[in-house]
Amino acid sequence: MSKYLSKHLRHQPERIGITLDDSGWVDIGTLLAAAAAHGFRFTRAELDHVVAANDKQRFTVDGDRIRANQGHSVTVDLRLPPAVPPAYLHHGTVARHLPAIRAEGLRPMNRHAVHLSPDRETATRVGARRGRPVVLSVDSGAMHRDGHVFHVSANGVWLTAAVPARYLRFPAPH
Protein backbone atom coordinates (compact mmCIF):
# COMPACT_ATOMS: atom_id res chain seq x y z
CA MET A 1 0.00 0.00 0.00
CA SER A 2 2.91 2.36 0.71
CA LYS A 3 4.09 2.13 -2.92
CA TYR A 4 0.55 2.72 -4.13
CA LEU A 5 0.22 5.80 -1.94
CA SER A 6 3.64 7.11 -3.02
CA LYS A 7 2.76 6.73 -6.68
CA HIS A 8 -0.52 8.60 -6.37
CA LEU A 9 0.33 11.17 -3.68
CA ARG A 10 3.73 12.08 -5.18
CA HIS A 11 3.68 11.39 -8.89
CA GLN A 12 0.41 10.47 -10.61
CA PRO A 13 -2.69 11.57 -8.68
CA GLU A 14 -4.59 12.01 -11.94
CA ARG A 15 -4.18 8.30 -12.71
CA ILE A 16 -6.87 7.50 -10.13
CA GLY A 17 -8.77 10.75 -10.55
CA ILE A 18 -7.67 12.65 -7.45
CA THR A 19 -6.41 16.21 -7.28
CA LEU A 20 -3.87 17.33 -4.72
CA ASP A 21 -4.28 20.83 -3.37
CA ASP A 22 -1.40 23.27 -3.83
CA SER A 23 0.26 21.92 -0.66
CA GLY A 24 -0.08 18.27 -1.69
CA TRP A 25 -3.06 17.38 0.50
CA VAL A 26 -6.05 15.25 -0.54
CA ASP A 27 -9.18 14.33 1.41
CA ILE A 28 -8.84 10.76 2.73
CA GLY A 29 -12.42 9.88 1.78
CA THR A 30 -11.72 11.02 -1.77
CA LEU A 31 -8.53 8.93 -1.84
CA LEU A 32 -10.29 5.81 -0.50
CA ALA A 33 -13.12 6.14 -3.03
CA ALA A 34 -10.75 6.76 -5.95
CA ALA A 35 -8.52 3.83 -5.03
CA ALA A 36 -11.54 1.53 -4.68
CA ALA A 37 -12.91 2.68 -8.04
CA HIS A 38 -9.56 1.66 -9.55
CA GLY A 39 -9.51 -1.78 -7.93
CA PHE A 40 -7.31 -1.04 -4.92
CA ARG A 41 -9.53 -1.18 -1.84
CA PHE A 42 -8.36 -0.32 1.67
CA THR A 43 -9.95 1.05 4.81
CA ARG A 44 -9.17 4.14 6.81
CA ALA A 45 -7.81 1.89 9.57
CA GLU A 46 -5.47 0.17 7.09
CA LEU A 47 -4.36 3.56 5.79
CA ASP A 48 -3.69 4.84 9.30
CA HIS A 49 -1.67 1.70 10.06
CA VAL A 50 0.48 2.10 6.92
CA VAL A 51 1.10 5.77 7.70
CA ALA A 52 2.07 5.00 11.31
CA ALA A 53 4.16 1.91 10.51
CA ASN A 54 6.01 3.24 7.46
CA ASP A 55 9.71 3.05 8.33
CA LYS A 56 10.50 6.19 6.36
CA GLN A 57 7.44 8.12 7.60
CA ARG A 58 6.62 9.09 4.02
CA PHE A 59 3.12 10.40 4.75
CA THR A 60 1.36 12.78 7.11
CA VAL A 61 -2.28 12.61 8.12
CA ASP A 62 -3.90 15.80 9.39
CA GLY A 63 -7.51 15.17 10.38
CA ASP A 64 -9.24 13.95 7.23
CA ARG A 65 -6.36 14.83 4.88
CA ILE A 66 -3.19 13.03 3.82
CA ARG A 67 -0.10 14.02 1.88
CA ALA A 68 3.35 12.71 1.06
CA ASN A 69 6.08 14.42 3.09
CA GLN A 70 8.42 14.96 0.12
CA GLY A 71 9.55 13.47 -3.17
CA HIS A 72 6.86 14.88 -5.43
CA SER A 73 7.29 15.07 -9.17
CA VAL A 74 3.97 16.93 -9.46
CA THR A 75 3.87 20.61 -8.56
CA VAL A 76 3.21 21.20 -4.87
CA ASP A 77 4.41 23.71 -2.30
CA LEU A 78 4.90 21.89 0.99
CA ARG A 79 5.28 25.28 2.69
CA LEU A 80 8.30 24.15 4.66
CA PRO A 81 10.13 27.04 6.31
CA PRO A 82 13.83 27.52 5.58
CA ALA A 83 15.98 25.70 8.12
CA VAL A 84 19.62 25.83 9.18
CA PRO A 85 21.14 22.45 8.31
CA PRO A 86 23.74 20.57 10.33
CA ALA A 87 27.35 21.00 9.20
CA TYR A 88 27.17 17.86 7.06
CA LEU A 89 24.35 15.95 5.44
CA HIS A 90 24.61 12.78 3.37
CA HIS A 91 23.40 11.42 0.05
CA GLY A 92 23.16 7.76 -0.89
CA THR A 93 23.77 6.76 -4.49
CA VAL A 94 25.54 4.04 -6.49
CA ALA A 95 28.91 4.09 -8.24
CA ARG A 96 27.52 4.32 -11.78
CA HIS A 97 26.16 7.80 -11.00
CA LEU A 98 29.44 9.19 -9.65
CA PRO A 99 30.86 10.54 -12.96
CA ALA A 100 27.77 12.68 -13.56
CA ILE A 101 27.65 13.77 -9.92
CA ARG A 102 31.32 14.78 -10.01
CA ALA A 103 30.63 16.86 -13.12
CA GLU A 104 27.23 18.34 -12.28
CA GLY A 105 26.72 17.90 -8.53
CA LEU A 106 23.43 16.61 -7.20
CA ARG A 107 20.36 17.65 -9.15
CA PRO A 108 16.72 16.97 -8.28
CA MET A 109 16.14 15.06 -11.53
CA ASN A 110 12.34 14.49 -11.75
CA ARG A 111 11.70 15.73 -8.20
CA HIS A 112 11.40 19.24 -6.82
CA ALA A 113 14.47 19.05 -4.59
CA VAL A 114 17.57 17.03 -3.82
CA HIS A 115 16.97 14.73 -0.84
CA LEU A 116 19.66 14.55 1.84
CA SER A 117 19.88 12.37 4.92
CA PRO A 118 20.91 13.54 8.39
CA ASP A 119 23.07 10.44 8.96
CA ARG A 120 25.22 8.01 6.99
CA GLU A 121 23.07 5.01 7.95
CA THR A 122 19.97 6.45 6.33
CA ALA A 123 21.93 7.50 3.24
CA THR A 124 23.33 3.97 3.00
CA ARG A 125 19.81 2.51 3.02
CA VAL A 126 18.72 4.99 0.34
CA GLY A 127 21.66 4.13 -1.90
CA ALA A 128 21.18 0.40 -1.37
CA ARG A 129 17.80 0.53 -3.14
CA ARG A 130 19.68 0.74 -6.45
CA GLY A 131 22.68 -1.48 -5.79
CA ARG A 132 25.86 -1.32 -3.74
CA PRO A 133 25.58 2.02 -1.92
CA VAL A 134 28.04 4.87 -2.05
CA VAL A 135 27.54 7.63 0.54
CA LEU A 136 28.55 11.18 -0.30
CA SER A 137 28.94 13.82 2.39
CA VAL A 138 27.56 17.27 1.68
CA ASP A 139 29.17 20.33 3.26
CA SER A 140 25.75 21.74 4.02
CA GLY A 141 27.14 24.22 6.53
CA ALA A 142 29.23 25.87 3.80
CA MET A 143 26.32 25.74 1.37
CA HIS A 144 24.10 27.50 3.88
CA ARG A 145 26.74 30.16 4.56
CA ASP A 146 26.98 30.67 0.80
CA GLY A 147 23.25 31.35 0.53
CA HIS A 148 21.77 27.97 -0.39
CA VAL A 149 18.37 27.38 1.19
CA PHE A 150 17.47 24.18 3.02
CA HIS A 151 14.17 22.81 4.27
CA VAL A 152 13.50 19.79 6.45
CA SER A 153 10.43 17.65 5.83
CA ALA A 154 8.18 16.21 8.51
CA ASN A 155 10.11 12.93 8.43
CA GLY A 156 13.57 14.47 8.76
CA VAL A 157 14.64 14.45 5.12
CA TRP A 158 16.59 17.58 4.19
CA LEU A 159 15.70 19.27 0.91
CA THR A 160 17.61 21.76 -1.22
CA ALA A 161 17.33 22.86 -4.85
CA ALA A 162 20.70 21.36 -5.91
CA VAL A 163 24.14 20.57 -4.51
CA PRO A 164 27.03 21.92 -6.60
CA ALA A 165 29.90 19.44 -6.87
CA ARG A 166 32.27 21.70 -4.90
CA TYR A 167 30.25 20.97 -1.72
CA LEU A 168 30.47 17.20 -2.09
CA ARG A 169 32.96 14.95 -0.35
CA PHE A 170 33.47 11.71 -2.25
CA PRO A 171 34.62 8.53 -0.52
CA ALA A 172 38.15 7.38 -1.25
CA PRO A 173 38.30 4.80 -4.05
CA HIS A 174 38.86 1.23 -2.91
Automatic annotation (TrEMBL):
It comes from the Bacteria. Signal peptide: none annotated. Its EC number is 2.7.1.-. InterPro entries: Ptrans_KptA/Tpt1 (IPR002745), RNA_2'-PTrans_C (IPR042081), RNA_2'-PTrans_KptA (IPR022928), RNA_2'-PTrans_N (IPR042080). Keywords: NAD, Transferase. Removes the 2'-phosphate from RNA via an intermediate in which the phosphate is ADP-ribosylated by NAD followed by a presumed transesterification to release the RNA and generate ADP-ribose 1''-2''-cyclic phosphate (APPR>P). May function as an ADP-ribosylase. PANTHER family: PUTATIVE PHOSPHOTRANSFERASE, TRNA 2'-PHOSPHOTRANSFERASE 1. This is Probable RNA 2'-phosphotransferase. It comes from Streptomyces spectabilis. The gene is kptA.
